[in-house]
Amino acid sequence: RYTREAATSTASVSSGLLERGEYADLEYLAGQLRDKKLTFPDGDWLLPVFYRATAGAAGPDRDPASWERTRERLVKWLEEVPGSAAAQIAEAKRLVGYAWEARGSGAASEVKPEAWPVFNERIEAARVTLNKAPRTCPEWFHQRIVVARAQGDDLASQQALFEAAWKAFPDYLPTVQAMVFNLLPRWCGQTGQWQRLARW
Question: What is the secondary structure of the chain as a DSSP string?
Answer without folding.
Answer: ---THHHHHHHHHHHHHHHHT-HHHHHHHHHHHHHTT-B-TTS-BSHHHHHHHHTT---TTS-THHHHHHHHHHHHHHHHSTT-HHHHHHHHHHHHHHHHHHH-SS-GGGS-TTHHHHHHHHHHHHHHHHHHS-S-SHHHHHHHHHHHHHTT--HHHHHHHHHHHHHH-TT-HHHHHHHHHHTSTTTT--TTHHHHHHT-
